[in-house]
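Protocol step 4 of 6: record predicted structures for both targets in the notebook before any analysis. Target 1:
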Amino acid sequence: MSVLLEVIATTVADARTAAQAGANRLELVTAMGEGGLTPSVGLIETVVAAVDIPVNLIVRPHSRSFVYDADDYNVMLRDVRAAKRAGANGVVVGMLTGDGRIDREGLGRVIEAADGLAITFHRAFDEARDLREALDVLLGLDAITSVLTSGGKPSVLEARDMIGALVRQASGSNCTVLAGAGLTVDAVAGFVHDTRVQAVHFGSGVRVGGNGLAPVDPAQVAQVRALLDAA
């Protein structure tokens, strides 16, 4: 089976470009410079209508931290329900307790609101106090279909051993390790070979000039797709 390629989209044009160039799935965000915040309903609806690949969207109310209060959760649950109504394939969320564990109660509320949508736990995972322990928690929840991680490092390319260990830990489960942050076109084939990941996530690595605020570069997406197909 070919490795899944997820690409971040911040505009309708990004979404169309990535889909046409060979992405299998989109993560739709706004404020990429802040690590991604919840996009508007208008953007969600327009992107879902514009492409024929699954659209997952980040549900993140602010970039202050991954520890959320009651008001934050009220906002997030409304956004999750709105995403479902807008036709999203899934939501991308992440929440921690003050001591660096998965916020099970908050995540449970999101799972209930998602009502069957695919759920990716995002890179809040990389700030957990123990990645193996955090993954165990997520593997116990059938609703969690992916975990986006850089292996606890700023760049996933610095965490090959950890990514490989997480892939083995998740083997046979309903949850896929989605490796992202710092991946480049030149490094992706070797990285996939070394870690055996079945899904990769690209943001600035497939954008014009490697700039996270620039448009998606169709040639780079197509090159990654070809490399993954040959891996």
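Target 2:
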Amino acid sequence: MSCPICARKTDPRYRPFCSRRCADIDLGKWLSGAYAVPAHEPEEWDEDTTGDTPPR
């Protein structure tokens, strides 16, 4: 297995990364929004609805 950031051999202490540096780079990408999980909102979701969750 190779590091997803730099492609070097992984280190068991930082797996799946090769070093703390690459692990921190990956964390920074998540925190900055560079990585995102695509989501699909149902069509019946109404933006005027109050609350944090869509109606069921």
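Step 5 preliminary note on target 2. The chain has one helix and no strands. The chain has a mean pLDDT of 85.
Proceed to step 6 after PI sign-off.
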